[in-house]
């Protein structure tokens, strides 16, 4: 027997979204540390400055990732998640019916 399809909530759990945002923040923080020379010969004040800048960059990346993912989730209608789509994703249903590509005989469209 086949298992039921996972729901949208199962696919996009909040813990996974937070984990993805945390991973993006960690990556950006490490890139900032390396690019500002944290692992080279620096004085104590310079190291503190590099760590502060890295934490700020990581925080901005964390918040920006969460906002972008939330806005992308708002763009999807949950009612359409289960249905099959036989046309381009960015096309409206009326555009798909009027499109010359939507032929019933399966032949390639004429150009």
The structural class is mainly alpha
Shape: elongated
Give me the number of helical elements.
4
Report strand %: under 5%
Transmembrane segments: 20-39, 51-76
Biased composition (Acidic residues): 92-104
Organism: Microbacterium laevaniformans
Region (Disordered): 90-111
Walk me through this protein's architecture:
This is Amino acid transporter. Keywords: Membrane, Transmembrane, Transmembrane helix. Residues 92-104 have a biased composition (Acidic residues). The chain crosses the membrane at residues 20-39, 51-76. Residues 90-111 are annotated as: Disordered. The mean pLDDT is 80. The chain is elongated, with a radius of gyration of 23 Å. α2 packs antiparallel against α3. The chain is mostly helical and 111 residues long. It has helices spanning 8-11, 14-35, 44-74, 93-98. The chain has one domain (9-98).
């Amino acid at each position: 027997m086949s298992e039921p399809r996972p729901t949208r909530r199962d696919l996009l759990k909040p813990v996974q979204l937070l984990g993805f945002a945390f991973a993006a923040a960690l990556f950006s923080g490490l890139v900032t540390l390396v690019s500002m020379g944290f692992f080279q010969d620096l004085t104590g004040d310079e190291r503190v400055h590099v760590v502060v800048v890295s934490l700020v960059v990581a925080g901005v990346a964390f918040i920006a990732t969460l906002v972008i993912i939330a806005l992308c989730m708002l763009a999807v209608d949950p009612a359409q998640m289960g249905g099959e789509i036989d046309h381009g994703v960015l096309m409206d249903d009326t555009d798909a019916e009027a499109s010359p590509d939507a032929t019933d005989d399966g032949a390639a469209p004429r150009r």
